[in-house]
Design a protein that fits this description.
The protein has 14 helices and no strands. It has 293 residues and is mainly alpha-helical. It is a multi-pass membrane protein.
Length: 293
Amino acid sequence: MTGAAAATRSIRDLALADLAGLKARHPEAFAGSPGRRALAIAIVAAMAGLALFAMIWFDFSPLRIWIGLHRLGDFAVMMFPPSAGGRFQAFLTALGETLAIAFLGTLAGAAIAFPFAFLAARNVVKSLPLRFAMRRIFDVIRSVDTLIWALMWVSVVGLGPFAGALAIACSDIGAFGKLFSEAIETTEHKAAEGVAASGGSRLHQVRFGLLPQVLPVMASQVLYFFESNTRSATIIGIVGAGGVGQYLTELIRVLDMDQVAFLIIMILITVALIDMVSTRLRMALIGTSMVRR
């Protein structure tokens, strides 16, 4: 038993031995609140009721899952051994296209959101209506899923990776705007005050007092989103937005599951490599503790 565990055990034993005294000295800490208990029970019962209602509404049936398991097993058997089917070069090109979609979309989203994030930060813009308007715009943009953006841009600019990059960028503008503005609001004021005391303008305060504090955090967020968008770019390819997702759709439709397995392995390896590199870069930018938080 460690020293800390022994100390905790000792405190617990002492508390149990003097339980009556503790109740007498601190009656408010031991007094139960019937209202709070009833509210907690009501919340749990409401959540259980909603879950049951949803299961009935969606015709949830364990029997159907059990009956369909053999089909899932058939898919798993058909995936082995994974094979490129002589299309390795085409798969590699499609994977590169997916990475390009994620990279361009993330970069464009961050670049567009960057200036507008300052307009939503409390310590930069004093106008409440302007901040409120910017935050609601970010909320509206990020409330639309990337897949919906992809469907819209495919209808506007046609099939292909261009629509995919636009979908990723639109989806990220709202998220980056919110995250960037929150990062700006957490900065220390002393640096900006020092610039102001030396005669700097408001723009100089932002440039030399605020930006150096938030740029590493913003860069870390962009790297994390690039990693996440690589997976999203795979999904939006299913609706015709380019990349490896188009191959996945076609191969699943014709049940070429060995090639599907090969593509999934390629995606897994790519995402793992990006995750490893992204984590190291973020650790270098903002420190180990912040990345692991």
